[in-house]
Design goal:
- This protein is mainly alpha-helical and 355 residues long.
- The protein has 15 helices and 6 strands.
- The chain has a 3-stranded antiparallel β-sheet with strand order 1-2-3, covered by helices on one side. Strands 4-5-6 form a 3-stranded antiparallel β-sheet, with no helix packed on it.
- A hairpin with a 4-residue loop joins strand 4 (221-222) and strand 5.
- The mean pLDDT is 84.
Length: 355
């Protein structure tokens, strides 16, 4: 039931206070300058409560964005082990900026302002934050909002749905030329880090991500089937990659001298329970080899590019790189052109052979 009270402020200006009380629901109130607006709001609010549509609106007025971030970090993030540190940092940034705002007041316009602030921000390395990084910050908050909508009942809908993401540049495809590959491997052999050569050989011959390589354990190496087993990949699924040729040889050599105080293939010298940090040896090897503009992740691109140039189909590359969507794999499509041309030529030769 709704009640409307006429009131005057200190300037004798009339306004109307509406109170809606329905059994089983929290009281709702609002103030309007016109009585017709007050009556309309009362009717809409009563209908929404009776139809069960007002509950989440009320919840959005009880919780702040900070409450959402805290609960998500406490209850959800621990289940995303590979994302805890990165997404935790991203979510705390949002809390620092607008954590005091009630969820009901977190609008797409407000998030858009913070998106633009992210794009103008300077990273710890003194560089302008990239659109790709900004998209990751937005993705972290978007998932938190989705959980609040679907599971917690704090919101009717996520405000992130109406916020435009910055356009990311096309994925880079930097791969090694045969000469660069030879120089890099030679530099890795001469590195002060005895594990660097094995790590880079594996990266170039399997396309595994750096995090996957660094966390490899001996139980993941299946010598009977010549495969590396991946219990949990980036996309959250189990997988495996072939272990053949020179990569298999270097792993067998490493197996002969493996440490007995750890199950990691590439443990740190100081703490065998943690993977080794190859950042400095890797940078030194690149410098010694005279190779520029090449990140460790580009070894994965080199693997895919070599597959493409040696006749592998996009589906083959997608499976070996463990991409969920082939749209990600199409960045290598131009490298398969020679192969597809020969396939079409062979098909035409066969079907028109008798003409």
């Amino acid at each position: 039931m709704a009640t409307i009270q006429e009131r005057k402020d200190k300037n004798n200006k009339i306004h109307y206070r509406v109170m809606v009380r329905i059994k089983g629901a929290d009281p709702q109130q609002a103030t309007f300058e016109r009585k017709t607006d007050a009556k309309l709001w009362a009717q809409q609010t009563e209908a929404a409560i009776r139809e069960g549509r007002h509950f989440k609106t009320a919840e959005a007025k009880k919780h702040t964005l900070g409450d959402l971030v805290d609960r998500y970090i406490r209850d959800v993030l621990p289940n995303k082990k590979k994302c805890i540190q990165r997404q935790g940092t991203q979510l705390l940034w949002w809390k620092e900026q607008i954590g005091s705002r009630l969820l009901a007041d977190v609008t797409p316009a407000l998030i858009g302002e913070q998106r633009d602030k992210l794009l103008r921000g300077i990273t710890r390395r003194g560089k302008l934050r990239t659109p790709a990084t900004t998209v990751r910050y937005m993705a972290a908050l978007s998932h938190a909002f989705s959980i609040a909508v679907r599971e917690w009942g704090w919101l009717e809908d996520s405000p992130m749905r109406k916020v435009v993401k910055p356009k990311e540049p096309r994925g880079r495809v930097r791969f090694l030329s045969p000469d660069e590959r030879s120089r890099l491997l030679e530099a890795c052999k001469k590195s002060s880090n005895p594990l660097l050569y094995t790590i880079v050989v594996l990266a170039l011959s399997t396309g595994m991500r750096k995090s996957e390589l660094m966390n490899l354990r001996w139980k993941d190496i299946d010598f009977s089937r010549n495969r590396i087993l991946l219990e949990e990949t980036k996309n959250g699924e189990r997988g495996s990659v072939p272990l053949v040729g020179h990569a298999l040889e270097v792993i067998k050599q490493l197996d002969r001298i493996r440490r007995i105080d750890t199950d990691l293939l590439f443990p740190s010298r100081e703490n065998p329970r943690k993977p080794i940090d190859i950042r400095r040896p890797w940078e030194n090897a690149l410098k010694a080899a005279g190779i520029k503009d090449f990140l460790f992740h580009c070894c994965r691109h080199s693997f895919a590019s070599e597959l493409a140039m040696n006749g592998a189909s996009l589906v083959d590359i997608q499976n070996l790189l463990r991409h969920k969507q082939i749209s990600v794999t199409t960045r290598y499509s131009h490298l398969t052109e020679d192969h597809t041309t020969s396939v079409v030529a062979n098909m035409n030769e066969k079907i028109f052979a008798e003409i």
